[in-house]
């Protein structure tokens, strides 16, 4: 595979780049520093060790789950760190399922009475690259720190299960606006591959190490090959997402116009809602048809990219086969 035109530093939101920076014992100080900034003083991780990222199901009916990165802190806290590049069906439920895996793994095979459900803390960190939090609406928050709390007054009910979602698309600070190390981490995560060097705003030992590690010129030939593949995969995902968003936008605008016209006769609000629903469905159907035509993706992969159910993809596939 020929080399791509490269920037000085690798993109650390690619699969290869993320695991090179955060996924090895020699560089675990980088992951510890990043996690500590995410918790913003609520907890301090002194040390951690990496776990196998593959979780095999307890029975043949339960498939294997492979996490991007999973680790355990020195006091038993467990973490899953996931990088997501496309909006997915049931993202929140998927992360809840992942957390349940880490919790269920702690149960001993026997003598559960003595164990007495002594469950360690479990945290899921989700780095969303290029898309917004599902159901976020107009909110432009880049950090969602979530735990179990009372619905009525917001007091924390259980603090040992947490979810941190990071929306890089909403982090828009320039270098001169970085006020703390969390800002600095999010800035380099989003912009690393477009930077030419370490600025005065990032001049700290932990970031100096990060920049040294991320230099493309220092990669071995086999590392460059793996990184190039990973970068192409990211670009493919971004291209699909961009095409999907454009098709959805056009279909929504068309259906909105039709819905508004119908709404003049049947009720303005009802017509507008119907137009939005038609636009969303039509746009996603067009995206699915395009992906099916490429013959590169499975039904489940298309469902994940288009943010629809597998049944809906099969329906569009059947309609496409009959020429509808």
Keywords:
324 residues; alpha/beta; six-stranded mixed beta sheet; 8 strands; globular
Give a written overview of the molecule.
Helix 7 (221-266) runs antiparallel to helix 8 (268-294), helix 8 (268-294) runs antiparallel to helix 9 and helix 9 crosses helix 10. This protein has 324 residues and is of the alpha/beta class. A hairpin with a 6-residue loop joins strand 7 and strand 8 (156-167). It is 47% helix and 14% strand. It has a six-stranded mixed beta sheet with strand order 1-4-5-6-8-7, with helices on both faces. A two-stranded antiparallel sheet has the order 2-3. The two termini are 39 Å apart.
Element layout with pairings:
Elements: H1 15-22, H2 28-39, E1 48-50, E2 54-55, E3 65-66, E4 69-73, E5 78-84, H3 91-104, H4 112-115, E6 122-128, E7 143-149, E8 156-167, H5 181-191, H6 205-213, H7 221-266, H8 268-294, H9 299-306, H10 310-321
Helix pairs in contact: 7-8, 8-9, 8-10, 9-10
Summarize the helix and strand pattern as letters.
HHEEEEEHHEEEHHHHHH
**Strand element count:** 8
Cα separation of the termini: 39 Å
Question: SS-based structural class?
Answer: alpha/beta
Hey, roughly how much beta strand do the residues contain? 5-15%
Which residues form runs of ≥5 with pLDDT under 50?
Answer: 58-63
Q: How do you describe this structure in short?
A:
The chain has 324 residues and is α/β, with parallel strands linked by helices. It has helices at residues 15-22, 28-39, 91-104, 112-115, 181-191, 205-213, 221-266, 268-294, 299-306, 310-321, and strands at residues 48-50, 54-55, 65-66, 69-73, 78-84, 122-128, 143-149, 156-167. The chain is built from ten helices and eight strands.
């Amino acid at each position: 595979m020929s080399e791509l035109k490269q920037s000085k530093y690798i993109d650390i939101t690619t699969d290869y780049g993320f695991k090179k920076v955060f996924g090895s014992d020699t560089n675990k100080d980088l992951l510890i520093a990043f996690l500590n900034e995410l918790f913003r003083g609520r907890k301090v991780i002194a040390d951690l060790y990496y776990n196998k990222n593959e979780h095999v199901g307890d029975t043949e009916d339960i498939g294997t789950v492979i996490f991007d990165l999973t680790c355990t802190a020195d006091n038993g806290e467990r973490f899953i760190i996931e990088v997501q590049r496309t909006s997915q069906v049931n993202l929140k439920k998927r992360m809840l399922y992942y957390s349940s895996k880490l919790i269920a793994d702690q149960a001993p095979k026997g003598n559960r009475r003595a164990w007495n459900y002594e469950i360690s803390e479990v945290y899921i960190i989700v780095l969303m690259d290029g898309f917004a939090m599902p159901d976020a609406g107009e909110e432009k928050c880049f950090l969602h720190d979530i735990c179990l709390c009372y619905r009525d007054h917001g007091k924390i009910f259980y603090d040992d299960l947490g979810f941190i979602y990071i929306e890089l698309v909403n982090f828009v600070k320039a270098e001169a606006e970085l006020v703390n190390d969390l800002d600095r981490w999010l800035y380099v995560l989003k912009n690393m591959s477009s930077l030419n060097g370490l600025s005065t705003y990032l001049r700290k030992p932990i970031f100096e190490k990060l920049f040294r590690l991320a230099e493309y010129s220092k990669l071995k030939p086999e590392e460059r090959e793996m990184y190039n593949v990973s970068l192409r995969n990211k670009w493919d995902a971004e291209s699909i997402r961009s095409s999907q968003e454009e098709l959805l936008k056009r279909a929504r605008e068309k259906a909105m116009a039709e819905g508004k016209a119908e709404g003049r006769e049947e009720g303005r609000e009802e017509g507008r809602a119907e137009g939005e629903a038609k636009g969303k469905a039509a746009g996603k159907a067009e995206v699915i048809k395009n992906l099916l035509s490429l013959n590169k993706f499975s039904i489940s992969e298309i469902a994940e990219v288009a943010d629809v159910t597998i049944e809906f993809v099969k329906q569009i596939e059947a309609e496409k086969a009959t020429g509808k």
